[in-house]
Amino acid sequence: MGVRASARTRRLELRLQSVEGELQELIRGGGDRPSAPAKPEEMPWEPSDDVVDETVLEERKKHPGKGSVPSVQKAASVAAEPPADGVREDEPEVPRPQPQSLEERIGTRWAVWVGGLALVLGGIFLVRYSIEAGLMTPAARISSGALLALVLVGAGEWLRRRSLSGAAEVAEGAPYIPGVLTLAGTTTAFATVFAAHALYGMVGPGPAFLLFAAVALMTLVAAVLHGRAVASYGLIASYIIPFLVHSDQPAVWPLALYGIFVSLAAYGVARVRLWLWLAFAAAGGALFWGHVLAFASGGPWDAGALAVYSLAVFAMAAFVFVISLYPRNAGDEIERQDWAAALVLFLHAFLIIYLLQIDGFGSVSLSALVVVAAALLVIATEWPAAAAAAIGAAVLMTFAYLSWQVPLSPVDLQQHVAAASRIAAALANPSAENFTSVGLLLAALSGCMGLWGTLRSSGRWALAAAGAATPLALLAIAYLRVAPFETSVFFGALSLILAAAFLAALVFLDRRLPADGPGREAALAAYTVGTVGAIAAGMAILLEQGWLPVGLALLAAGTMWVREKWPLPALSWVSLGVSVLTCLVIAYEPTIVGVDRLGRTPVFNALLYGYGVPTLAFGYCAWSLGRTVQDWVQQAFEALAIFAALVAIAVLIHHAMNGGDFYAPADTLREWSLHTLVLLAGALAAQRLDRISHSPVLSFASLAFGIVSFATIAQFHLFTLNPLFTGEPIGRGLVFNLLFVAYLLPACLCAAIALWTGAERPQWYRLAAGWLGGALIFVWISLEVRAYFHRPHLDRGVSTDAELYSYSAAWLLFGIALLLVGLRWQSRMIRLASAVFVLAAVAKVFLFDMAGLDGVWRALSFIGLGIVLIGIGLLYQRLLTRASANPPEPEERIA
């Protein structure tokens, strides 16, 4: 009664709408009905609507949510402008439908959908109950299900023809009773065929195949007639059915055939009605069903079913998302990349990984892998809008080869006991019978098809990347699994052959591709990277560990030299990548040749060429690139060269200062003194070079070196590693000893930084350098006095009166010397430093010497201090008198 009442209500509504439309046509005075606007050709997935009443459909498209608005609105919108008061006397009042109340929604909408769902579930549970209770024979159950499906589909079609409301209801998303009955019937038909074949064995694979095809075709036709509700609910129900009506011994072949035809029906409806949402839903359902099949499979026979299913759903996805939408390769650049289509194809292709595991990398699964990978490359070539599918092919082949004989199948992963150890053991010991030959096959496939696609397709950026990257990745996997980190002539020769092939392809493409062709630079860059990468791989395989960083560094320099002859923009990036790889290799083995082979010879050992050659190579790259362009790549080379030079000197110092023990702790003032001198010299050198080249890298390096050196001086030289506290021997020499290197030389370099640094550095930087230089001089003089009495160990022995007096005398003499220098060079900073020494001497005499010295040493201390202070006073008085007698010119005072 509810169904009949709803159908009658809809017929009355349509009649009322028709009468209203005719009335408005009469008011308007007649006229032609507006024609439906043409759909833009550039939107392949534009939704379509069923055509029953063109006027109703056209008005619904223009005014969604308002029912069938009379066409007089269009006439009113194009009529003459209304008068000033905004009201036209002859303008008809258009009745607006009132929104539905909650009661109406429950009665007319929700009840229909819930009733349809109840019909589907009721039929399913009735079949399940009949099985459990044994009420009917299998033949009677199947017959009843088929009869129920026919009745439901027939009732839906009868109501659709009676009410003529199918298309209007679908377009508006309102409850559509014929569609609900139809989707219930198609779902019941799927369940009936599945039960007849999988549960009772009443039909074999052949008849089941035909029955599934018939039901799928019926669903396709029904969805085209009844709208998206049938499609969406039918798709969901089709994937749920096997979980509600199941068997204790599931057969994989029926599941595979079932999934194929459900996907075929869903893709067919999506393509006919141009529903993009349904296409993606079908793709998701197909992937879900593929995982279900993988977990249900367990042998070669099941692997065949999974292979058929994987290839079938991949072919359907390729047709729906790419082949039927985009034109074939025309050689022109495409406007956009369809990344979604490429991702869908890759996810469908990835089902082959399950197949490889279940089949044990047999002939069936390997053939399917080759077919799918080749199909992805062909699609990327012939339909450039999905060129990213070539990247999917590269990832698929690489991961498939990496998982060779690795227990990653669903059954293996369910065994949690020692899963990690089993996988690690499999990775380390592959089945070598076909492992290398399959790798060569896949490398040849990807390389040849990638070159072919690069030559003819506008999507060559992805094809070239796949053609160059896949063989390199397969080579690396084969080497690391068969002969890991060993010197292998076979794999080294393969690397060099591959490099030669890439170089030949590079030259060939450079001559054949048009200069303005789309993706030309990207393709050439890909094969350039492949050439350099293959050479680097050959070096890593053939060269011993100590020569690998040298070879890579020379490769980076050689690549930059080739850029000078053949100015491809990608070559600088390739050279930078090889340089970074060189640094990583050195970081992996900082001793270059290993601790046992490094030896104890200072400077002239493997560290010299292992760090020196990369430093020179990075410097050459920076210089070569800087002659033509100064971008961030050139600055990166400058930074690498500076860093490599600093590290090279540091490791040589560390090795020499610790008797060849590379991993000894750096805890002596001897070593840190040399590091500090290197940093200070580097700060000065970078500063001078920056004034010539105006490089931001050199500017930053000079500032950074200075700050780090200041920190090491403040921490190690003055406090932590001071020989007065640590007792480190300074040597037997009075002047040329550890104090000379640790204090006097750093003080001179700090003074140079303070005096030579211009306004391009912060004021605090110059002041820090000056005061640290003064502090180092003060400590050097004091420790030299101590060394005169107690060398080589400054922490031993008792201070005598002569030693205490010597400190005061030394500070005063050095203060006077600084004062004279400051007056000579007119440097206020030097004069202030001299004042610090003099004040230190005054403080010592009055605070310490008065109490600590006895006899003549106390008298000499005060006498000497007095003479010096009076002399300083006389000197300043004379200078001030001379300055007042000869006042400077105004310009000089301003200066």
UniProtKB/TrEMBL annotation:
<feature type="compositionally biased region" description="Acidic residues">
    <location>
        <begin position="43"/>
        <end position="56"/>
    </location>
</feature>
<feature type="transmembrane region" description="Helical">
    <location>
        <begin position="306"/>
        <end position="327"/>
    </location>
</feature>
<feature type="transmembrane region" description="Helical">
    <location>
        <begin position="180"/>
        <end position="200"/>
    </location>
</feature>
<feature type="transmembrane region" description="Helical">
    <location>
        <begin position="139"/>
        <end position="159"/>
    </location>
</feature>
<feature type="transmembrane region" description="Helical">
    <location>
        <begin position="251"/>
        <end position="269"/>
    </location>
</feature>
<feature type="transmembrane region" description="Helical">
    <location>
        <begin position="698"/>
        <end position="719"/>
    </location>
</feature>
<feature type="transmembrane region" description="Helical">
    <location>
        <begin position="274"/>
        <end position="294"/>
    </location>
</feature>
<feature type="transmembrane region" description="Helical">
    <location>
        <begin position="768"/>
        <end position="789"/>
    </location>
</feature>
<feature type="transmembrane region" description="Helical">
    <location>
        <begin position="608"/>
        <end position="625"/>
    </location>
</feature>
<feature type="transmembrane region" description="Helical">
    <location>
        <begin position="669"/>
        <end position="686"/>
    </location>
</feature>
<keyword id="KW-0472">Membrane</keyword>
<feature type="transmembrane region" description="Helical">
    <location>
        <begin position="206"/>
        <end position="225"/>
    </location>
</feature>
<feature type="region of interest" description="Disordered">
    <location>
        <begin position="23"/>
        <end position="101"/>
    </location>
</feature>
<feature type="transmembrane region" description="Helical">
    <location>
        <begin position="435"/>
        <end position="455"/>
    </location>
</feature>
<feature type="transmembrane region" description="Helical">
    <location>
        <begin position="488"/>
        <end position="509"/>
    </location>
</feature>
<feature type="transmembrane region" description="Helical">
    <location>
        <begin position="830"/>
        <end position="850"/>
    </location>
</feature>
<feature type="transmembrane region" description="Helical">
    <location>
        <begin position="462"/>
        <end position="482"/>
    </location>
</feature>
<keyword id="KW-0812">Transmembrane</keyword>
<feature type="transmembrane region" description="Helical">
    <location>
        <begin position="734"/>
        <end position="756"/>
    </location>
</feature>
<feature type="transmembrane region" description="Helical">
    <location>
        <begin position="856"/>
        <end position="876"/>
    </location>
</feature>
<feature type="transmembrane region" description="Helical">
    <location>
        <begin position="110"/>
        <end position="127"/>
    </location>
</feature>
<protein>
    <submittedName>
        <fullName>DUF2339 domain-containing protein</fullName>
    </submittedName>
</protein>
<feature type="transmembrane region" description="Helical">
    <location>
        <begin position="521"/>
        <end position="541"/>
    </location>
</feature>
<keyword id="KW-1133">Transmembrane helix</keyword>
<feature type="transmembrane region" description="Helical">
    <location>
        <begin position="230"/>
        <end position="245"/>
    </location>
</feature>
<feature type="transmembrane region" description="Helical">
    <location>
        <begin position="804"/>
        <end position="823"/>
    </location>
</feature>
<dbReference type="Pfam" id="PF10101">
    <property type="entry name" value="DUF2339"/>
</dbReference>
<feature type="transmembrane region" description="Helical">
    <location>
        <begin position="339"/>
        <end position="356"/>
    </location>
</feature>
<feature type="transmembrane region" description="Helical">
    <location>
        <begin position="362"/>
        <end position="379"/>
    </location>
</feature>
<feature type="transmembrane region" description="Helical">
    <location>
        <begin position="547"/>
        <end position="563"/>
    </location>
</feature>
<feature type="transmembrane region" description="Helical">
    <location>
        <begin position="637"/>
        <end position="657"/>
    </location>
</feature>
<feature type="transmembrane region" description="Helical">
    <location>
        <begin position="386"/>
        <end position="404"/>
    </location>
</feature>
<dbReference type="InterPro" id="IPR014600">
    <property type="entry name" value="UCP035905_mem"/>
</dbReference>
<feature type="transmembrane region" description="Helical">
    <location>
        <begin position="570"/>
        <end position="588"/>
    </location>
</feature>
<dbReference type="InterPro" id="IPR019286">
    <property type="entry name" value="DUF2339_TM"/>
</dbReference>
